[in-house]
From TrEMBL, chains A, B:
Organism of this sequence: Methylovirgula ligni
Signal peptide (residue range): none
Protein name per UniProt: Phosphate-specific transport system accessory protein PhoU
Subunit structure: Homodimer.
Annotated keywords: Cytoplasm, Phosphate transport, Transport
One of the GO biological process terms: phosphate ion transport
InterPro entries tied to this protein: PhoU (IPR028366), PhoU-like_sf (IPR038078), PhoU_dom (IPR026022)
Function summary: Plays a role in the regulation of phosphate uptake.
Subcellular localization(s) per the UniProt record: Cytoplasm
Cellular component GO terms, alphabetical: cytoplasm
Domain of life: Bacteria
Pfam family, one: PhoU
Domain PhoU positions: 20-107, 124-209
Length: 237, 237
């Protein structure tokens, strides 16, 4: 390759990274907005959050398109190919995080007409804090190519799963206490599941960072959405 | 390209198609098994269903790996590139269908210790029939490159969404009738959401078939997971 070609190629890889960073920022903002909208039943904020999702969808398609065209044009090997594959995967996970935040915002819209039970939302706040931290650490791990931080995300996701179990039991208890709580809490059950899955996607991102930096995949013993490990893309480091 | 190279290339594309077909068969079987396990609370069948998911994960990674290597090696244009991109997308959707069926099977395991309410499962059976039909039609549309059938899937998914709304209300009613139904029905709420999302993935597959055959994307007015339409991969037909 000429210097000129190499520079164009570098620019393409950098453009992918910038789009992922933009997607990460939007996904974090959507999660934060959706949880605020849910806590305050702010329908205007909920609608804004739903509307933000379209930008994420467009960015994901951009990343996928640009990544595939780069593979076809440059025929990259090893580390560069991992860089591009990582961009495709992470953009997919961030698009899903946006969908899940959008789902929470939509629940906030549905709940605005229901009898409220503020104490039922408390457990969801703890889940939100844990999930926001996982997402931030996963995005930082990607930005810094920090394998240790990525492994921490992978380890800490179980705490969010445990929180979800606890919230599930609490919500069922509120429902049993008073049938008037049933509808409100049923919607919150879905919100809690959505937050838990944002943790799963953060963990997926962390796994992708480990793959990106080391060429290795993490073992399969994580409870959710594991990779079939060693047999995947055995590319030279 | 020499004839030999062209043949090797054709073989690669055919191998992708065969893997997608295998994935489709497994996903359909998992959905059917999971719903049987849920209806009868058959823990052995539920465990078998959970175990089947690993094969789908491996196949998805195979398809992704093979597709990307083919793009890098052959630098395909237009129709062939769409073929490969479609394989990546459809394998992703089928892997998610498997996850969702696995989730239902896991709920069947959790429910085996709960007080049962057989009439609560009835609505889920209707949802299952609708979702199984959408999935079958989407897979047939892919196998036959049948755009009309794909558009039918896209149109009919709203019926499954309406069924889910109805099941949601029914389950809430059962919960309000008797607090002893709450735990059982809370788990069924998640199963019903899982089935509804299998419909969404079937619709994604149908959208991919339309893109594969025509090079066009469907408009954005579907309720869930729309494509940012016209700006995506504007490749010549």
């Amino acid at each position: 390759m000429t210097d000129h070609t190499v520079k164009a190629y570098d620019n393409e890889l950098e453009a992918l990274g910038r789009k992922i960073a933009e997607m990460g920022g939007i996904a974090e903002q959507m999660l934060s907005n959706a949880m605020d909208a849910l806590a305050t039943l702010d329908t205007s904020l909920a609608r804004t959050t739903v509307a933000m999702d379209q930008r994420l969808d467009i960015l994901q398609r951009d990343v996928e398109e640009q990544a595939i065209l780069t593979i076809a044009k440059r025929q990259p090997l090893a580390a560069d190919l991992r860089e591009i594959i990582a961009a495709i995967r992470i953009s997919g996970d961030l698009e899903r995080v946006g969908d899940l935040a959008k789902n929470i915002a939509k629940r906030a819209l549905k709940l605005s007409g229901e009898t409220r039970l503020p104490r039922a939302v408390v457990g969801l706040k703890s889940m939100h804090e844990a999930a926001a931290m996982l997402l931030k650490d996963a995005l930082d791990a990607y930005a810094l190519r920090d394998v240790e931080r990525a492994r921490m995300v992978w380890t800490h996701d179980v705490e969010l799963d445990a929180l979800e179990d606890s919230v599930f039991r609490d919500l069922l208890t509120f429902m049993m206490e008073d049938p008037r709580n049933i509808s409100f809490c049923a919607h919150l059950l879905f919100c809690s599941k959505n937050i838990e899955r944002i943790g799963d996607h953060s963990t997926n991102i962390a796994e992708t960072v480990v793959y990106l930096v080391t060429g290795e995949t993490l073992p399969m013993d994580r409870p959710k959405g594991p990779s079939p490990a060693a047999d995947y893309l055995p590319l030279p480091k």
